[in-house]
Every structure is written in C-alpha cells, then in structure tokens.
Amino acid sequence: MKIILLGTPGGGKGTQAKLICDYLKIPHISTGDIFRSKVKDGDALALEIEDYTQKGKLVPDYITISLIEDRLKKEDCANGFLLDGFPRNENQAEALDLILNKQNEHIDRVFLIDVPEAAILDRLAGRRVCPKCGESYHIKYNPPKIEGKCDICGTDLVHRSDDQEEIILDRLAIYKETTKPILDFYNEKGILHKIKGDDGINDIFNRIRKILDADG
Ligand SMILES: [Zn+2]
C-alpha cells in the first residue's frame, strides 16, 4: 500500500504516520528524516541542504524529488510506504506520479488529517522537540517520560521559536494555499480521504484504519 499523509503542521500527523506504518508494516518516509540523514554524509549536497534548512528556507524541489526517488528504490519500499511531508506542492505531486509511473505503480490512498486552526494553535504552543533526533512531544497530550528530556536520546527538549502564534498563523495560511492544488490533484483521482482530526489519537486512527481495512 502506497500512502501519502497530508495534514496541517502541528495537527498530529506524525503520530498517525507511526500508527499507520506499524499497522501496515511499511516504512515511514519523511522529508525531514531524509534531509537529516543526508546532512550526515557531509558532501556538497549535504552542505547545500544544511544551508537551506538552517536558514529556515525550503529545500528546492529538484533536490527533494531526487532524494525521494532514491529512497523509494530501497528494498524496504517493496510492499509500500507512507510519505509524510512530501509532496508539498503540485510540482512535487506531478514528479512523484512520474517516478511511480516508470515502475507501473501509483499512490493508493491520500489521507488529509483535517484539524481546525484553534486546535492546532493549542497543540503547537505545547509542542517540544528534540533537537538531536527530531522526536516531538506535547506537554499535555504526549509528554516525555522525564520532563524536558527526550525519551529516545535524553537530549534537552526545545520549544521551537517558529511554534509561536503569529508565525503559526502565517505558516497555516501558506500551507493552505500550497496544499489546495495537491488536494485537487488527488481528489480528481478519487483517492483523497479527509479525516476529521480534532479529537483523540485513537479515534483518528480508527477512521483511517476503516478505510485501509476496506482495501483488504
Ligand atoms: Zn532525542
């Protein structure tokens, strides 16, 4: 099963991604992880990516697309995958189609986790992330075992400066604008599912699971 998971930043998408991947036993492919792992290579491309991400800029499409294409060729993707954070615009969605078409493959399902703005503000204000491994937490909904420390690597968690209200609202507006064409693109193919995402983690996952189970 080849899945794309879309959702407003801070809408609990990462948690659902993990649940879906555990359930279907498919790899979770996020552009954030791909960039972090590429940066460790230390080559020219790594330095370029580091420069973009440190300045808070988007990595250009041609780089992102080629990294995704390489990642999808890996053996663990043979039975499917879940893409998280990609595609983030129409150009990337079209490129992904071309990559898959070359192998006579296609995306099976696209899930949009739909969360109202007020709920997102609440979630992001309480969000804490690990600067070392990228794991994220929420002081109310998903607290670490030891306050302020990452469960996985023990690093001090941080409240990112871009998790502040004004910046969040800006980001949401930009997100809506760039996501609209992607939603239209997959809606026309009949594979887009809007999932109500403003309640508990398990309620949201059950809605997704019903659709996955119906596919057999
Ligand atoms: Zn960590």
Automatic annotation (TrEMBL):
Residues 30-59 are annotated as: NMP. Residues 126-163 are annotated as: LID. Keywords: ATP-binding, Cytoplasm, Kinase, Metal-binding, Nucleotide biosynthesis, Nucleotide-binding, Transferase, Zinc. One of its GO terms (biological process) is AMP salvage. Pathway: Purine metabolism; AMP biosynthesis via salvage pathway; AMP from ADP: step 1/1. Zn(2+) binds at C130, C133, C150, C153. Pfam families: ADK (PF00406), ADK_lid (PF05191). PROSITE patterns: ADENYLATE_KINASE. GO terms for molecular function: AMP kinase activity; ATP binding; zinc ion binding. It catalyses: AMP + ATP = 2 ADP. Its main location: cytoplasm. One of its GO terms (cellular component) is cytoplasm. AMP binds at T31, R36, K57, L58, V59, G85, F86, P87, R88, Q92, R160, R171. The keyword Kinase applies. CDD domains: ADK. Its EC number is 2.7.4.3. ATP binds at G10, G11, G12, K13, G14, T15, R127, S136, Y137, D199. It is found in: Cytoplasm. NCBIfam families: adk, PRK00279.1-2, PRK00279.1-3. Consists of three domains, a large central CORE domain and two small peripheral domains, NMPbind and LID, which undergo movements during catalysis. The LID domain closes over the site of phosphoryl transfer upon ATP binding. Assembling and dissambling the active center during each catalytic cycle provides an effective means to prevent ATP hydrolysis. Some bacteria have evolved a zinc-coordinating structure that stabilizes the LID domain. Belongs to the adenylate kinase family. Monomer. This is Adenylate kinase. It comes from Acetobacterium bakii.
